[in-house]
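Re: the request from the purification team.
They wanted to know what the chain is likely to look like in 3D before they choose a buffer screen. I agreed to run a prediction and write the result into the notebook, where they can find it.
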Amino acid sequence: MPILLAPTDTDLMILHVHGTDKTIQHLRELGIVPAMHCRVLSSEPSGVILRVGDSRLALDINLAKAISVVVA
């Protein structure tokens, strides 16, 4: 499911990251790679706030659209 539709405060696993090479590289640099565990802390029409490892990341709608997740 797209991360924008994922439930908040639920353990998730990143299934797939897609988009342009630049988008994929940027997300990889942020630590968002397939098989990584994360949690949606907040979801708004403008984007999401994720917890990935010990970090909190704010992703705009365009970056969030590039991430597919499954419930872990």
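For the purification team: The mean pLDDT is 96.
Please add any questions underneath this entry.
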